[in-house]
Structures are given as structure tokens and as C-alpha cells.
Request: fold
Amino acid sequence: MEKNNLFEKIPMEGVKNIIVVASGKGGVGKSTVAANLAIALARNGMKTALVDADIFGPSIPTMFGIENARPDVTANGNQEMIFPIEKFGIKIISIGFFIDRNQSLIWRGPMAANAVKQLFEDTQWGEIDYMIIDFPPGTSDIQLTTVQKLNLTGAIIVTTPQEIALNDARKASSMFLNPDLKVPILGVVENMSWFTPAAHPGEHYYLFGRGGGMKLAKEYDTKLLCQIPLVMEVGEAAEEGRNVFQQTNKAAVEAFETLAGQIIEVTESTEISK
Reply:
């Protein structure tokens, strides 16, 4: 009984694809990738949702400039229904909408995992082509509960090129490939691939090494979806509630356009093969 209940899926009617964006460690730009992938998909005409499941460090409200937003909540019988905040054509939900930004959450793993589960169960999503989930870094109760409770289309692994980041990314990848979970890895995103100084626009400086993303993709027989350069303006934009398409670095814009195109191609080909 316990095991059956554990793996009982949350019905996500109207949601076609659910994709988690994961990393083995913090600081590799996972939330930036999740946020801007969602925006890029919306710019491609896709009905898109973004779930901030990084419950102990929710950054999506800041990245979208909606830190003070509060979703509407209405009663539906014995259940409360949450209506997501919408910005840039994306439906967004985050635990950050329900707590003070300076408040720390001191929750044990199962309590945190249950809170994340409620974000999916109690939110009115409507028709969605792509739901992007920003996972917390690492592997914990939150990730495990989400993987067990949702019918996931697949996972995107975010890493930087250096070996120490790859080692942590391997741990995250192994969780998805666990025989009891079997979540497809759609591909790898290599972030902070190179740095190009403004004074030398034609040059690439590989500050964190080179080729790590491709190495990881080959190990797991998946695709290197894109390489994203290290761009200071992208980080500054995120802190100001602006997205990658609202800054001037063309290489960063092209990287996320490529990523969205790859995800659409991979998921559509998967759907055809079913």
C-alpha cells in the first residue's frame, strides 16, 4: 500500500510536456537556464508554465521582477485553488510568492517535498504545452517526490565545463536513470562555456575549461543541447527582473533560441515515436 501510494501520479490534465531543469550543485546557472528556456519557448508560440521548486532558495520571482506578487487563491469545495502569476506570457508559481523574501524556511525534507507537491496539485494551470520545473540543486526528498509524482517528459542537466561540476552533474543524472524512476535525459546544457571581453569580441576565453558538457552528454548517450557563454549582462538583467531577450549580448540570445528549438524538436520527435 505504501509503495503504491508513493508512486501514485498527480493528474496534470492539459499539460503536454513536463521538463525538469536540474543540476548536481548550486552556482551553475540552473535557474537562469530554466527561466530563459521558459521565455524562449513562449516566444516560439508555446503555452508555457514555470514552477520554482527550489523551495529553500526560490529565485524565479526575482528574475521575473515579481517578488511582491501574490497569486489569487479561491476555495473549491474543500480544496483551495491557486491561480499562477503571469509574466512574459508564462504562468509562474513559486514558494517565494507565499513567504517573505527575507524569511528562511526551516522544514524537514518530507514537509518541503509535500509543499512542492501542493504547488502542482492546487494550481489551476489550464492548457500548457511545456511546463518547466526549476529543481533545487542536488538530490533530495523534493526531487525524488517530484519525479515519483509527475509523469515527466524528461530532464535537462545543467553544468559548467569543469570536472568538479561534472562530478555533481553525474549524481543528478544517476537519479533520473534509476531503474525505479526511468526519467529520460533530454540533454545537457553547458553554461559559462566561455567569456568574451567587450574589447575583444572575436575571442573566447575558456575560464572553466573546455568540452565538459559534451563529455557528460556522451557519457549518458544524450545531446549537448547548447553552450551558453558567461555574460555579465545576463546576470545583471536577472537581478533586475529582465530576461536574456532584454539585454544586448547576441550570443546569449542565440544560445537560448537554440535551446528552445532543440527541446521542441526532441519532444516532438518523442511524441511521434510513441
User: Anything to note?
Assistant: The first strand starts at residue 15 and ends at 22.
